[in-house]
Amino acid sequence: MSDLRDLYQQMILDHYRRPRNRGEMDDCTFSADGFNPLCGDRITVFVKMEEDKIADIRFVGDGCAISMASASMMTEAIKGKEEQEAEALFESFHALVAGDGLADEAEVGKLQVFGGVRDYPLRVKCATLTWHTLRAALRGTDEPVSTE
Amino acid sequence: MIVPAEREQGVSLDVVRIRADFPVLQQSIHGNRLVYLDSAATSQTPEPVVRAIAGFYRDDCANVHRGVHELSRRATDSFEGAREKVRHFINAESTREIIFTRGTTDAINLVAQTFGRRAVGSGDEVILSALEHHSNIVPWQMLCDEIGARLRVIPMFDDGTLDIDAYRDLIGPRTKMVALVHISNALGTTNPIKELVSLAHDHGIPVLVDGAQAVPHVPVDVRALGCDFYAFSAHKMYGPTGIGALYGREEHLNAMPPYQGGGDMIRQVTFEKTVFNAIPHKFEAGTPNIAGTIGMGAAIDYIAAIGRDEVSAHEARLVAHASERLSSIGGVRLIGTAREKVGVVSFVVEGAHPHDVGTILDHRGVAIRAGHHCAQPVMDRLGIPATARASFGIYNDDDDVDALVRAVLEVREVFA
Ligand SMILES: Cc1ncc(COP(=O)(O)O)c(C=O)c1O
């Protein structure tokens, strides 16, 4: 089995302790709620669109290190991207953490630190909850996203 | 047979011999010895129980209560024999008062939908406690929503004990049912059930007790408790999953309508009318979980051979030891500090989410539960999203506590 440090990489711990882009957004274009009933993680993602780009993105939530760091790093990775690009990045990210496809290394960039999640199948949902929630926001889904 | 061995700390269980009955514990997880501290979710199953279940399928498999042939007689004898074991296990007066169910949840739903439906009317109230497992909340909530009744909740103090004075005040002319957990699965608090039952009975109010976390750990005597109903599951007391029992006072069971209709619960059926079978069979429609029931009986035998007082003393010592060791680690806070506490130690680690604690402990082979423990209102009341919970059984010892403590220290390192 891999070392714990492969899962809890320094950058993940740093984002967990000092999440970026955390907070509500009053003037968001879209928002969505995500929930993991298994462990109680919850998250709300707010996005502000300008033209076709994600001009701003913020989140609020409560959860484990993996889910909170994933949300924080997602906001950094996604800002300025078009919806299509965000979807593509999610696909690569999913392949990276679930180990069920080829992740484009250049595309995932810093998110590479989540590669260790692959060895912890029970934690994949923690890493992807924020992304599912983002997708729901972009698609204007009203129902809260649930991992179960 | 397992005999309690003399130890320095006084009488203690011979855990080495007990562990030999649990092959599942003799494996390594991620390269470490498996340290199973999640018995409150589901306990492991000893060889004699596995053998009893397999033995039924191998040698005696037949339906119960209906065959004229030898195999059916044997199956029926073993099945009804298990009912007698359950009766004795909780000291009920008669086997007619023992109904086999799928487990605690099923038993509570049965009572809510039959007894509860008759006892509770529009505008009435059902009292629960702040410590309840979802399975002793939702069935009552469903009933109340349907008939326009209301749930009232006995509040708890920060240490996880119930506010008995508030309970006294809640009881009123509208109270038609009280449903309480005996021992909390989230915090380990043991409720003073006898006292709580007697307060309700002073007003003629019936009481159901959720004993899922009590029967594996402490001797239970339903007549001494005085409760009207007592529900529990086999899989938390070294028996199989999908089987449990409901104790109900005979006069209640006789008056209650059936829960489900079908075979076995009838005496006579025509298209015009059905005459229901006598209790307990009236509440056991269809072919039951025969193997599971026999396994449950074997689990009772297993616990009895070790000795319930011995089990109780052993686990109390482990819980005290684990509580002391964990609370001496900087940044670790115990959740639920009632003096009367059984089976579980819930805790949080500063700066580390319980889910991460669970992953790091699992990495070291230490299996605990992290989450809300199907008791979200308990978590909300304490203002925390979740806890890490170590729970103990007859196969745990001080080495397991050491492994737990070492792994929690590692959590502190990772999240330092
Ligand atoms: C206190 C308590 N009540 C009820 C239950 C439900 O038991 P089961 O899932 O076996 O029906 C549990 C176990 O999860 C429990 O701990």
Can you give a write-up of this model?
The complex is a heterodimer of chains A (148) and B (416). In chain A, helix 2 (10-17) packs across helix 3 (65-78), helix 3 (65-78) crosses helix 6 (124-138) and helix 4 runs antiparallel to helix 6 (124-138). The two termini of chain A are 27 Å apart. Chain A is of the alpha+beta class and 148 residues long. Chain A contains 6 helices and 4 strands. Chain A has a single domain (2-146), classed as Sufe protein. Chain: A. Chain B is α/β, with parallel strands linked by helices. Chain B has 2 domains: 15-45 and 308-415, Alpha-Beta Complex (Aspartate Aminotransferase, domain 1), CATH 3.90.1150.10; 50-304, Aspartate Aminotransferase, domain 2. Helix content of chain B is 39%, strand content 18%. In chain B, the strands form 6 sheets. A 7-stranded mixed beta sheet of chain B has the order 6-12-11-10-9-7-8, sandwiched between helices. A 4-stranded antiparallel beta sheet of chain B has the order 15-16-19-18, covered by helices on one side. In chain B, strands 1-2 form a two-stranded antiparallel ribbon. The longest helix of chain B is centred in the first third of the chain and has 21 residues, at 70-90. Chain A binds chain B through residues 1, 4-5, 7-8, 13, 17, 38-41, 62-66, 120, 122-123, 126, and chain B through 30-31, 351-356, 359-360, 363, 370-372, 376, 379, 385-386, 410, 414-415. Pyridoxal-5'-phosphate (PLP) is lined by residues 103-105, 133, 135-136, 181, 185, 210, 212-213, 233, 235, 244, 374 of chain B.
